[in-house]
Hints:
By secondary structure, the chain is an alpha/beta fold. It has helices spanning 27-38, 55-59, 64-76, 95-114, 144-154, 171-176, 225-243, 269-286, 305-316, 329-339, 366-378; strands at 5-8, 47-48, 120-123, 160-164, 183-190, 214-219, 247-251, 291-294.
Amino acid sequence: MGNQRVVVWDESVLDYDLGGEHPLHPVRLDLTMRLARSLGVLDGVDLLPTEPATDEDLLRVHTPEYLAAVRSAPMAGEEVGHGLGTADNPIFDRMHESASLIAGGSRLAAEQIVSGRADRAISISGGLHHAMSDHAAGFCVYNDCSVAIAWMLANGVERIAYVDIDVHHGDGVQAAFYDDPRVLTVSLHQHPLTLWPGTGYPTELGASGADGKAVNIPLPPGTDDAGWQRAFHAVVPSVLDAFRPQVLVTQCGADPHREDPLADLALSVDGQRAIYRTLRELAQRCAGGKWLALGGGGYSLFRVVPRSWTHLLATVLDADLDPAVSLPADWMAHAARVAGNVAIPTSMTDERDAGFVPWDGVTDSSVDTAIRDARHAVFPLHGLDPLDRRD
């Protein structure tokens, strides 16, 4: 019962394959699970096989017309619309089945928490946060994050906090719950003037009746571990404390890393490990330990995502790894075979200091400006003083 940790996984999720040289390649998931096994992170852990989301699950988030379009797309070719058949969202065989399997995995992970069978659950294949109610976007066909949250709301959970640490704004989840005061969406992302999808300004606060339930912290290109954590700690713990969620849902995209080819933040694997540990602490402090962790973006397929998400799995499972641990020889050999000419790291660290200086109210950098703007926009709507520096 409670205090259990659940990992939702089976290899069928690798069929969500957008093909060719598409950045969202399923090899990143395969390499992550192989690395976690090789390092003993999954020792004694029974993996819970994923199962497809039902139409009822999907229709809480998506329109009937969109579901019909996804189902028919492989036969219809490029005439289907709804954001399908683009360079970002190419049509592929069994698209509905593959996408609904990922959505179902996130919903199943949520069910483990709501049922009391687990306090924490993780599905690294999830985190497809850009899909909208009626169209695909940003490599995402179905929005599994929103499907899981909507399922929890339909099954008695009254307050859910969603924290998105992907480099891209969590726009699809924000849109799904923009007028719902039961869901707090928080997104830290590269500034929308510099990165797709061009949304996620501090002034996006939630619709009338849900004022302050959308929180956005856009960060300047080049933000490193210290700046990212300074911004996170200056805003997120305070709004979570004020909201008092019953469950914390996190989208843990690995693409804020400095080597990610699609964005311009500058985090390290060490900084990402520190972030995951902070999320675990916040779940315990603010949500009674209830934590649903999902994957997300991440396009340094061989060097970054497997290490970052192995740290994520280890954090969820309380099997924390020493960052200095060497990568197992068998995993490195396999990774080298599939990576071609890409050099594979030899340990679980980038050898970066993940420390930071807490925000002190001074605005003397672009990160501090982001902190100031976010606090002044949203804190008063939660009864918080934007000038209070206690957290």
